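Request:
You are asked to prepare a plain-text protein record giving the amino acid sequence and the backbone structure tokens, at your earliest convenience.
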Amino acid sequence: GFAMNTTVQLFQFAKWPDKGRVKTRLAATLGEDGALHAHITLTLTVLEQLRQCGYPLALAWDHDLDEPPAGAAAILNAVAGYGIGQLIQQGQDLGERMTQALSRGLEEADRAIVVGSDCPSVDADYVAEAVAALEEADVVFGPSDDGGYVLIGARRTAPAMLQKVAWGSETALEESVTAVRNAGLSVAILAPRWDVDEPEDWARFLSEFGQSPTGG
């Protein structure tokens, strides 16, 4: 059938691991070094989960820089080892960045999916659910427990599909769904997954993924 031959392009959105700029809500309990380590660990975990989907994957960094920070070595080594493409996110805000990435993916593939680097609960099964949902809908969202989302996928995009959304707020998902529908696209919503923002989320990650808090 047609669905068997559907091609999918995955993007992982990632922030460069700059100390003091990443996972700031974890720094209160973990310290800046601990927060940086958490960020790197999460980015690598998501990379590993997405790699297991078997689809082409590209890592989309938040900005261009002349020289990667020292903390990025582990991520860059993994990317090189797996032969994963890298690109720089384009656009003024998160909505534009995600829309541009999805549009870029859809130039090459039938479906495009963007996942955030703080969403270790997004596994191959969840990505498969998103791909299946795109048989019926133009855009699919994977909600997070905090009112945002861990995943967005599309088979069609529109330039204004994620405009005027209050990013990082508890209404980000709601506003995104409205924006997508206002752009004339249909929407599917998956079951929610958790992401890592607060110290209790990090504790959950450590218990579920078997990482020792010291970084072993």
User: Anything to note?
Assistant: Helices lie at 24-51, 73-82, 94-108, 124-133, 172-182, 199-209.
